[in-house]
Amino acid sequence: MSGTSIQVQRNALFYLLTQVLGVTFLFLWLASLTQDWSPLNPLLAISHQPGHMAHEMKEAQGLLTGLIAAAGLSFAAWKLLRLRGQDAVAGKRIMLLGTALFLAVPLLMLMLQRSASSYGLPSMYLSIPEIKPLLGVGAVVAVGAGLLHLYFAGWALNQSRLRWGGLLAGLLCAFLLGLLETDQERLDLPQVFASLAIVWLLGSLAFYPLIVNPKRWSASHSKRATVAQAWEHLASIQVQRRRTLGVFGGLMVVILPFFAPTWASDSLVFQFTRMAGLGLVLIAVLGRCWCMLYLGGHKGSSLISQGPYSISRNPLYLFSLCAVTGMGALSGSLLLGPVLALFVYAVFNNVIDEEQVLLQKVFGQDYQDYCQRVPRLAPRLSLWNSPDELRVSLTGLARTLRDALPYFLIWPVFALAQCLQINGWVPVLLRLP
């Protein structure tokens, strides 16, 4: 299959946290956030335009909706005809599921749109105003958002071009169809984001058994029969891990200036949380250096089962999670650190699985015995053992220290964000306890 990725995604926790929950709640949060914010758009200033302009925009919207629907169905049919070989059956199932979603979602949106305008909901809007934008979905906008099914189909087929092309097409077409709505003077962002949220939630749940598939995971293992193949695959997974965490970190830097804890900056809880966060980051830096004293330059060449590796099979990842928790706590929020650590663990969990495949091939029964004796992540202190002497790699130790020191940079980032908020240059859009 052309364009097939070498990675087979099967990490259920990562998928549920990021795709099902993370992105869906992001769209819902944007829908709630923008319900009282309507940026001026001269193209939609209907009150200042002749009446025929609204009619022409409605016709353009109808024509564009038909073209998007026809293009989506034609593309799905073309992909079905191109599927060949042993993956053809699974591929056809994937594309048929996506096509069914593409056709069914606008009908569901129409039902929700009508229910949102029924007589029973105005009282609910008064008591829970946040729910109004979440039910303000649009059947027309859903046609454009429905192209997001290509994103999940591309992931299930391991075709990155189809995946990211579908994501871009879904977002662009949803905003374009929302732009041509003629019953308001400005772009109805809550309607666009609410429609994207519902389409995304349905698509991520429908494709879950196809993307997170243990059989495909087992089949991918059989293709890495040699140690060299396992090393090559693990290297690609590590690259993707760094890219994922890099994107995740970049998004956090962008979002953090608009975030603030619920506690006052002079409160005891705020100060204690920040001091605890600083302590966790310091422990993480020292812990990673401690692991490197035992690991040295022997990673992958010999089975390290002493020192921190005698109480946990993955102490480096454990201290990294400790650092992430501390970085979140430096914001003054008790909740942010564990949430960030949970997302990072979802990324690490996939890498740990791949490393286990490689170590099993390299060390065989010795590694199996080690896995049965030592826990995967949480330390068991009663298992501690260490040699009297160690051969230390100063180069590896210096590299580990260099990579860990940037953890402390989160402190000035939070300080800058707090300064921007105090001076009124940046609004607070989200508060967490």
TrEMBL record:
Residues passing through the membrane, by range:
12-31, 60-81, 93-113, 133-152, 164-180, 192-211, 245-264, 276-295, 316-348, 409-430
What Pfam families is this protein classified in? PEMT (PF04191)
Location in the cell reads: Endomembrane system
- Is Transmembrane helix set as a keyword in this record? yes
Q: What keywords tag this UniProt record?
A: Membrane, Transmembrane, Transmembrane helix
Membrane topology listed for this record: Multi-pass membrane protein
Q: What is this protein called?
A: Isoprenylcysteine carboxylmethyltransferase family protein
Q: Which organism is it from?
A: Alcaligenes aquatilis
Taxonomy of the source species:
Bacteria, Pseudomonadati, Pseudomonadota, Betaproteobacteria, Burkholderiales
